[in-house]
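hiii so um. not sure if this is the right channel but i have a protein structure encoded as tokens and i wanna go backwards to a sequence. like what aa goes where. can anyone help
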């Protein structure tokens, strides 16, 4: 199970990540601000997104509403200290699939996440993105050009996915590094440039201009086409 946790309480967030991984979650990405939660959810597929009600730079309700407006179809669980009926109703009307009040037991949270994940898989609609002759199926995690499959590593796929999802926008090298590798890893920043180089070799045509544009001194972008 791949989970995104948006929780600004450092102690609680760290504890939840540790316990969920101990329970068997494959990946738990943790952010502490609402704006980051939105961008992470839009840039990658998660079985469940856990949103804290109160966060800096975007509360859980606003983030959930924005995700739904953008067509995000993944499961969302609202996590909050509020437990009044109208608060629960507000969360569900914002687009949340479930609601859990603090304090909570990790066993209950895990059970709710598993239930939501099962709903997420049944069924999944394929999400296909097309840009400059490249066809990316985010559900099947496949990439084609002219009906010929392009074999990408998981990191290359994540990087291409991030750039296509944000086409028309310059992504800084720091932003790319944080979204794909994370600043808590021992990987060096220059790994971005190496991965971009390998990705270009696989997706660009020999005679064409590179799909991924270098913005000198800033980062990379893919133009809207």
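sure thing!! here u go:
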């Amino acid at each position: 199970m791949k989970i995104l946790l948006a929780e600004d309480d450092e102690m609680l967030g760290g504890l939840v990540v540790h316990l969920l991984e101990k329970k068997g979650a494959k990946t738990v990405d943790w952010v502490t601000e609402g704006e980051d939660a939105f961008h992470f959810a839009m840039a990658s597929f998660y079985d469940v997104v856990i949103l804290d009600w109160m966060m800096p730079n975007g509360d859980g309700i606003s983030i959930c509403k924005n995700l739904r407006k953008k067509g995000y179809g993944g499961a969302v669980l609202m996590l909050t200290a509020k437990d009044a009926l109208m608060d629960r109703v507000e969360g569900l009307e914002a687009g949340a699939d479930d609601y859990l009040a603090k304090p909570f037991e990790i066993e209950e949270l895990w059970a709710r996440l598993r239930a939501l994940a099962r709903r997420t898989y049944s069924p999944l609609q394929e999400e296909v993105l097309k840009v400059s002759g490249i066809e990316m199926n985010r559900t099947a995690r496949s990439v084609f050009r002219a009906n010929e499959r392009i074999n990408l590593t998981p990191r290359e796929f994540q990087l291409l996915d991030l750039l296509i999802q944000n086409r028309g926008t310059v992504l800084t090298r720091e932003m790319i590094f944080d979204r794909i590798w994370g600043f808590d890893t021992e990987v060096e920043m220059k790994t971005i440039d190496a991965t971009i180089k390998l990705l270009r070799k696989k997706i660009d045509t020999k005679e064409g201009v590179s799909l991924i544009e270098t913005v000198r001194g800033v980062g990379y972008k893919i133009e809207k086409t």
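oh and The first helix runs from residue 10 to 23.
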